[in-house]
Amino acid sequence: MFKSIEATAKDIGMPEYQILKYIYEGRIKAVHDGENFLINSAQFDTYHEQLERIKEEIEIWRNTPIPEDMDVKDED
Q: Which superkingdom (predicted)?
C-alpha cells in the first residue's frame, strides 16, 4: 500500500522533514507522481518487527533482577 509522506511519518513516528530527507538520500524508496511522493509502506515491515523485538528485549532486561554482589559479604 502506498502512503503519503505525512501518513508514513505518523506511522513510523518520524518528522516529515526527516522522511523527505531520507527519500532524497535514497534511504527510503518512493515514487513521485508529479506533485507528491508516494511511499510503499511494506518497506517498513522489517523496521516494525525489529522495533518490537527491541522493545521486548528491553522489557526482559528491565525485569531481570540484579544479582547479589558476592564481595559484599566478604569480611577481611
A: Bacteria
